[in-house]
């Protein structure tokens, strides 16, 4: 391992968040940082969002908002044009919604120059492997991988992203396996549980795969995501927003603004997009009980308005519904009983008492991503929770972190060496799953780490990597 003098940051997780953080940390060579990026997958920057090979799976954020750098908002668009990807995706302006796999390529291109161009040592050291344990040492932190190797640095940042629920097998499939891989016969009836964006993706995958059988999408409310429109976000001043109120007041305020705007010919999207820069502060000022009520009663409504479909996808979805190829049902699945090569799916429509039966060949679980870290199967998170290095937030949608992304341990102490970014921090920030928010979080954390505003009791020394 080459010797180096800079402060070393270990990032666990090389999905979009981990790579964005590495880019922000290494943007300014004067900061003299070294980054070790640990990722268990073969590719970087993909994760479940941008690892899809399906061309029909497009970004749900316009290209104009997907730059890696908040201070260079057209960076992604310029990459699309200069790499030729915009032409391939028939994308004529920054409002377009390009295939997600292109975004994975963009992220990978960003990081390529940092992996070394002759200088010794390169600023970025990428390690393929699964992190299983982390410990606070006298000189910094040590991250242990499943192969027994250990990597030490001054600080470590968790960017472990989404917890993907594994399908229970048999008649059940997960949405991250393409229909062919999941063994879905093209003439079989497919029941999709969930009616959000993941369902939409899976329906498009099925159609792409030549599926001619029945497709039924089911969720308790049967709500579909709304569609994007070109709107100018409403301009709000921080002083216009209600902070620290209860949920009823906040909802009334929000509805009032939407109504006021609509009466002047405006669009509700402009209100949601306008308050986006303040959503995290609104969330942080909500009382805990109000946050709980939001998650229980309003989250589904918020999600379909906030996380919208690309216009082309909406057109395709509506055509599939209109021609009967896709049925959307508001119902609750009660039981699944195997019956030979099929399964009887028993369900009850919303507001009905009678139980109906659908004979299905496959059930695809698109109900969302596991968010309670208590249920995590990630060995690193399990280890941290068991050892008390981290604790689950009272809302159970992430681990507890402070406003500067520092991890809070079991006793409530804020770490000076362990940080987290991305979806894992959603309990603290709520609006932190999409790139426009993650890039800001990464830029701010990088600024703090570059400025040395973290404790470094003593240097871990040049032999920063200890082989097994
Ligand atoms: C299907 C889908 C589509 C989306 N589309 C968009 C979109 O269009 N626009 C947008 O802005 N946002 C989108 N998002 C939101 C998405 O959360 C973010 O854009 C971003 O991908 C989050 O990246 P991440 O790195 O935090 O998480 P992930 O993508 O989950 O990546 C985490 C990485 O950490 C690795 N890892 C985890 N644990 C370990 C370990 N112990 N050791 C080593 N490696 C580990 C994983 O292998 C993975 O590569 C989408 C999300 C999903 C699920």
Give an overview of the whole structure.
The protein has 3 domains: 196 residues, 3-Layer(bba) Sandwich (FAD/NAD(P)-binding domain), CATH 3.50.50.60; 99 residues, FAD/NAD(P)-binding domain (3-Layer(bba) Sandwich); 69 residues, no CATH class. It has 468 residues and is α/β, with parallel strands linked by helices. β12 and β13 form a beta hairpin. α1 runs parallel beside α5 and α1 packs parallel to α13. The strands form 3 sheets. The protein has a 7-stranded mixed β-sheet with strand order 8-14-9-10-11-12-13. Strands 3-2-1-7-16-15 form a 6-stranded mixed β-sheet, covered by helices on one side. It has a 4-stranded antiparallel β-sheet with strand order 4-5-6-17. The C terminus is likely disordered. The protein is globular and about 65 Å long. The structure holds flavin-adenine dinucleotide. The site of flavin-adenine dinucleotide has 32 residues, from α1, β2 and α2. The site of flavin-adenine dinucleotide (FAD) has 32 residues, from α1, β2 and α2.
In the CATH classification, which architecture of the largest domain applies?
A: 3-Layer(bba) Sandwich
Rounded mean pLDDT is 92
Number of strands: 17
> Strand content of the residues, in percent?
15-25%
- Cα gyration radius (Å): 23 Å
């Amino acid at each position: 391992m080459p010797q180096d003098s800079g402060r070393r940051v270990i990032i666990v997780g090389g999905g979009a968040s981990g790579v964005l953080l590495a880019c922000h940390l290494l943007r300014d060579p004067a900061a003299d940082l070294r980054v070790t990026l640990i990722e268990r997958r073969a590719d970087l920057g993909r994760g479940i969002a941008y690892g899809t090979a399906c061309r029909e799976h497009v970004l749900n954020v316009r290209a104009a908002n997907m730059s890696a750098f908040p201070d260079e908002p057209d960076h992604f668009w310029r990459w699309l044009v200069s790499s030729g990807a915009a032409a391939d995706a028939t994308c004529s302006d920054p409002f377009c919604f390009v295939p997600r796999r292109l975004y994975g390529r963009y992220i990978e291109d960003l990081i390529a120059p940092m992996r070394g161009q002759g200088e010794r040592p390169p600023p970025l050291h990428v390690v393929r492997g699964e992190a299983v344990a982390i410990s606070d040492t006298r000189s910094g932190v040590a991250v242990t991988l499943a192969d027994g190797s250990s990597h030490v640095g001054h600080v470590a940042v968790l960017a472990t992203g989404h917890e993907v629920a594994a399908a229970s097998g048999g008649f059940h499939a997960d949405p991250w396996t393409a229909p062919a891989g999941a063994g879905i016969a093209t003439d079989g009836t497919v029941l999709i549980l969930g009616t959000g964006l993941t369902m939409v993706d899976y329906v498009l995958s099925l159609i792409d795969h030549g599926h001619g059988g029945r497709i039924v999408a089911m969720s308790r409310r049967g709500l579909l995501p709304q569609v994007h429109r070109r709107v100018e976000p409403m301009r709000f001043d921080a002083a216009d927003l209600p902070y620290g109120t209860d949920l009823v007041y906040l909802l009334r305020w929000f509805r009032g603004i939407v109504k006021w705007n609509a009466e002047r010919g405006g669009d509700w999207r402009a209100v949601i997009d306008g308050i986006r820069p303040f959503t995290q502060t609104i969330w942080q000022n909500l009382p805990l009980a109000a946050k709980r009520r939001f998650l229980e009663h309003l989250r589904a409504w918020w999600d379909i308005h906030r996380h919208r479909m690309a216009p082309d996808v909406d057109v395709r979805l509506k055509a599939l519904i209109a021609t009967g190829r896709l049925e959307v049902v508001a119902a609750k699945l009660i039981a699944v009983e195997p019956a030979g090569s099929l399964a009887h799916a028993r369900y009850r429509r919303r507001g009905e008492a009678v139980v109906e039966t659908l004979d299905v060949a496959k059930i695809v679980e698109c109900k969302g991503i596991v968010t309670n870290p208590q249920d995590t199967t990630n060995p690193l998170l399990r280890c941290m929770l068991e050892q008390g290095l981290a604790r689950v937030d009272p809302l159970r949608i992430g681990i507890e972190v402070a406003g500067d992304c520092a991890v809070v341990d079991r006793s409530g102490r804020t770490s000076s060496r362990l940080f987290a970014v991305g979806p894992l921090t959603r309990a603290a920030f709520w609006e932190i799953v999409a790139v426009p928010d993650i890039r800001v979080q990464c830029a701010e954390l990088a600024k703090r780490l570059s400025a040395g505003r973290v404790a470094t009791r003593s240097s871990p020394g040049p032999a920063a990597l200890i082989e097994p």
